[in-house]
Specification:
Length: 469
């Protein structure tokens, strides 16, 4: 880990959510998740701070400390949660940034709430950030924060990382508040994206919309510069491997296989229940393969775990209803008593259980229409310490740039998806092992700690460049 990346300066993280949750006894504990694990030790050592929402509407506790990290809650009301979070963030920006897979709602009240929550974050950051410190802002809910903060605190080094794709110019420019969002991001010294394509889309966007001069990955505007680059995020590989190696996990994996009736091939899907993830698509492909006799319900079963998410947003309610209808239809048609052919869980599972499932999965289906990165694909490869297992991966997931040993597929092409599933199911052991070894080599090269280190090192360079220019 290289705290040198920030030259020993304190780091302040801003994200929609704080990295802690209330345990059963009411005390705060760090939330599970790679991002928290990557950033927490660094914050502890740098005397850092995290600014974010507790996740409870109208919750406004005093600042507090967990394991040496200073936590600064930003209150968000129930109304703001509807307008800023469910509305502008997840019903305007999210679909627009994911290929406009659903129609965005553009509503001025939602925009005003987005702006006012972003202002609240910027005001808190301006107050807590020590002189010359480093502020790292995360994701699409907070795109105005860098600009608002730069106005108040020109001394700060400000970075931003977008976890989701940045759309092509023609989509982004649909946004009625496109200039404000683009200008907000230019408050940064460095804006980081998952893929080169996202960075290129952003550069083309500001070039079209704003008065800027572009030189490679540097954007000059109003007497300052902003650098742009790609920093593909990863997972805590060592942690997944450790869980996967454990005795309890091995036992649980065998138990899962037995409970599923010891089928020849277990196909697995693990996603937030989001319309970008292509869950219905893969279920339909599975059904078609059973119907055509290319798969056999007595030998091939599918497990789909879908995490509840954004349940108040209509597109999500529709997506859930459509997936659940599909699961019912497939099971009604192809299951036997006591042996469903699709096992569907609409639940969030503990990480240990997920890793046991990954290990049980012979074929992992990751088929999003569009995804910033997709960590599930990387977790699957990390969990397969046995060196076996096949990953079927959409070309439209950011992870496809790196995980080239997966069976890559265009999920919009139904026939190609069916063929990719059959290819994975029938793949010879030798080829499976060769591909899995390639996947595992790849993810070991860059874990989430390396990602954070690379971003912060580049941020350091970008802020030095800005100060010298
Ligand atoms: P997400 O869209 O949430 O993230 P993803 O990258 O797949 O998508 O991460 C999901 C995480 O949730 C994984 O770590 C997985 O283990 C966990 N998870 C999934 N289903 C679960 C379940 N049922 N129970 C418990 N945990 C579950 C956004 C972007 C992605 C980008 C990440 C990180 O949309 O493209 O990869 O941020 O930048």
């Amino acid at each position: 880990m290289s705290e040198t990346s920030s030259s020993g300066r304190p780091i302040i993280i801003a994200a929609n959510r704080l990295p802690v949750m209330r345990a059963d006894g009411g005390q705060w504990t760090p939330s599970p998740g790679g991002l928290v694990r990557a950033l927490y030790p660094m914050l502890r050592e740098s005397g850092g701070t995290w600014v974010g929402w507790t996740g409870e509407p109208d919750d406004d506790p005093e600042p507090f400390t967990v394991e040496g990290v200073d936590l600064r809650p930003i209150p968000i009301s129930a109304d703001e949660m509807t307008l800023y979070y469910e509305g502008f963030s997840n019903d305007a920006l999210w679909p627009l940034y994911h290929d406009a897979l659903r129609e965005s709602t553009f509503d001025n009240d939602q925009w005003q709430a987005y702006r006012s929550v972003n202002e609240r974050f910027a005001a808190e950051l301006a107050e807590v950030a020590p002189d010359e410190s480093v502020v790292w802002v995360h994701d699409y809910q907070l795109q105005l924060v860098p600009g608002l903060l730069r106005e108040r605190r020109p001394d700060l080094t400000i970075g931003f990382f977008l976890h989701i794709p940045f759309p092509p110019v023609d989509l982004f420019t649909r946004l009625p508040w496109r200039d404000q969002i683009a200008t907000g991001l230019l408050g940064c010294d460095l804006v980081g994206f998952q893929r080169p394509k996202d960075a290129a889309n952003f550069v083309a966007t500001v070039d079209q919309l704003l008065d800027v001069a572009i030189d490679g990955n540097t954007i000059a505007h109003g007497g300052r510069t902003t650098s742009v680059g790609e920093y593909p995020i990863s997972i805590d590989v060592a942690e997944v491997e450790e869980i996967a190696t454990g005795r309890a996990t091995r036992q649980r994996t065998s138990q899962i296989r037995a409970r599923l009736g010891d089928p020849e091939v277990i196909m697995l899907g693990v996603d937030r229940l989001d319309y970008t993830k292509g869950i219905g698509l893969r279920l339909r492909a599975f059904a078609r393969l059973l119907e055509d006799g290319r798969l056999d319900p007595t030998r091939h079963v599918m497990v789909q775990v879908a995490t509840p998410t954004r349940e108040a947003v209509e597109h999500y309610q529709d997506e859930r209803a459509s997936i659940e209808r599909l699961v019912g239809e497939i099971n009604g048609r192809f299951s036997r008593i006591g042996l469903p052919v699709v096992h569907y869980l609409y639940q969030s599972l503990p990480y240990d259980e997920l890793v046991a499932l990954y290990r049980a999965g012979d074929v992992m289906l990751v088929t999003p229409f569009r995804d910033g990165m997709n960590l599930v694909a990387k977790e699957y490869a990390a969990a397969h310490i046995d060196g076996d297992g096949v990953l079927v991966l959409s070309e439209f997931a950011g992870a496809a740039d790196e995980l080239t040993d997966a069976v890559l597929v265009n999920p919009h092409d139904e026939r190609a998806l069916q063929d990719a599933i059959v290819e994975a199911v029938e793949m010879h052991r030798h080829e499976r092992r060769g591909r899995m070894s390639g996947l595992r080599d790849q993810i070991r090269k860059s874990d989430v700690q390396g990602w954070a280190d690379r971003f912060l090192a580049a941020l350091d360079v970008a802020s030095t460049t800005r100060k010298e220019s």
